């Protein structure tokens, strides 16, 4: 590298004293003769304004001007006016009529089977028996689809009627006949040991590109989400997060002191005013969020959740969507309004750019 380019203009040269002697050991004549003999001169540059490289100046000016333009673009210009809109502009025009196959569902079991389809049980059956053969080739057990259905039903029953341990459900005093008469305790434990929702051999190791923390249950999540999307959405919906409680040790487990169940999987949900969930997204980390929304606008990690969950809402029908100050931002409101999805959310006063909220 050219020292003149590195140091730019030279203002003066300072010669240093040798390190192996001190002023006390040298006479005045020796001190004058030895000055600057051992060390190269130290170059002190002049101010940046003199003798600077033209290319560097152009680049610096470009960076300064571009950053200035970006900062100005981020600050909106507010003006006085009325926020009221004509009622015709807010009129809901969406379709909320349920399909005929959904209206035909009458019992809770029929509704459950609509979302937990035969295709789901089919790949659970295949992957479970494949895993069982790999783990115990000397004594291969064949688990049928009917047994898997019974296993899922027992798990749902256990979530309502809770006992200290699994074996208590087969206890003569504490157990329940609707469980013990359907499946033995050993059979339940065997299915619990081998049940799988996906092929482990296809999983990309952690740390490599394309790794999916939800690989083990991804087919089930995809099928469930596709069934949820077949239900027409209500006029009024909201986006919020929930905790799916778990005691398992996993990197996806979150801790939230404000939730009833503080430890669990974080799940973002798009729900209607009736309480029905139309879409969901399990939080797997910031990196997972970045990789999953490459075709959508980037606003912020929290606002992008609303962007992703609202992408299946029909545009131009004036659906109303609500969220709290965790998700609200001015760019998000602008984005939704352009799609004729009417947003409403609380926002912190400090998060309103370019506007000072008057004190109460």
Structure explained in plain terms:
The strands form 2 sheets. Strands 3, 4, 5, 6, 7 and 8 form a 6-stranded mixed sheet that branches. Strands 1-2 form a two-stranded antiparallel ribbon. The protein has helices spanning 3-7, 28-34, 54-74, 87-90, 100-103, 108-115, 118-135, 145-160, 177-180, 185-194, 218-228, 286-292, 301-309, 330-338, and strands spanning 10-14, 42-45, 236-245, 253-255, 263-272, 277-282, 319-323, 341-345. Strand 5 (263-272) and strand 6 (277-282) form a beta hairpin. It is 37% helix and 13% strand. With 360 residues, it is α/β, with parallel strands linked by helices. It has 3 domains: 3-74, no CATH class; 100-200, no CATH class; 232-351, Nucleotidyltransferase, domain 5 (2-Layer Sandwich). Residues 38-61 have low confidence and may be disordered. It is built from 14 helices and 8 strands. Residues 19-28, 46-56 have a biased composition (Acidic residues). It holds the Pfam family DDE_Tnp_1_7. Residues 16-56 are annotated as: Disordered. Residues 107-352 form the PiggyBac transposable element-derived protein domain. It comes from Euphydryas editha.
Major sheet attributes: 6 strands, mixed
The helix content, as a percent range, equals 25-40%
Total beta strand runs: 8
Would you tell me the overall average pLDDT? 81
- Domain tally: 3
Shape: elongated
Radius of gyration: 34 Å
The count of helical stretches stands at 14
The stretches of 5 or more residues where confidence is low (pLDDT under 50) are 38-61
Strand content: 5-15%
Task: Give the ordered list of helices and strands.
Answer: HEHEHHHHHHHHHEEEEHHEHE
């Amino acid at each position: 590298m050219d020292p003149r380019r590195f140091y730019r203009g030279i203002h003066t040269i300072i010669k240093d004293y040798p390190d192996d002697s001190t002023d006390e050991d040298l006479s005045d004549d020796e001190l004058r003769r030895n000055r600057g003999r051992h060390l190269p001169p130290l170059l002190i540059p002049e101010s940046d304004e003199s003798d600077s490289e033209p290319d560097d100046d152009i680049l610096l000016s470009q960076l300064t001007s571009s950053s200035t333009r970006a900062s100005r673009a981020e600050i909106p210009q507010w003006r006085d006016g009325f926020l009221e809109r004509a009622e015709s502009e807010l009129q809901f025009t969406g379709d909320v009529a349920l399909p005929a196959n959904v209206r035909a569902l009458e019992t809770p079991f029929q509704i459950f089977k609509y979302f937990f389809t035969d295709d789901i049980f089919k790949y659970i059956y295949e992957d479970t028996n494949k895993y069982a053969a790999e783990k115990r080739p000397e004594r291969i057990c064949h688990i049928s689809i009917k047994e898997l259905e019974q296993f899922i039903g027992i798990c749902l029953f256990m979530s309502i009627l809770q006992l200290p341990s699994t074996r208590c459900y087969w206890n003569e005093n504490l157990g329940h006949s609707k469980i013990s008469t359907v499946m033995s305790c050993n059979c339940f434990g065997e299915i619990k040991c081998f049940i799988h929702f996906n092929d482990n051999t296809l999983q990309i190791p952690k740390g490599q590109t394309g790794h999916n923390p939800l690989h083990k249950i991804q087919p089930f999540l995809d099928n469930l989400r596709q069934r949820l999307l077949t239900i027409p959405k209500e006029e009024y919906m909201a986006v919020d997060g929930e905790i799916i409680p778990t005691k398992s040790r996993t990197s996806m487990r979150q801790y939230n002191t404000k939730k009833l169940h503080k430890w669990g999987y974080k799940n973002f949900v798009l729900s209607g005013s009736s309480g029905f969930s139309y879409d969901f997204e399990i939080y797997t980390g910031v990196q997972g969020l970045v990789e999953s929304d490459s075709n959508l606008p980037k606003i912020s990690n929290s606002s992008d959740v609303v962007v992703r969950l609202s992408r299946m809402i029909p545009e131009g029908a004036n659906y109303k969507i609500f969220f709290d100050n965790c998700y609200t931002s001015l760019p998000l409101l602008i984005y939704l309004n352009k799609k004729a999805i009417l947003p409403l959310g609380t926002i912190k006063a400090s998060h309103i750019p370019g506007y000072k909220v008057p004190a109460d």
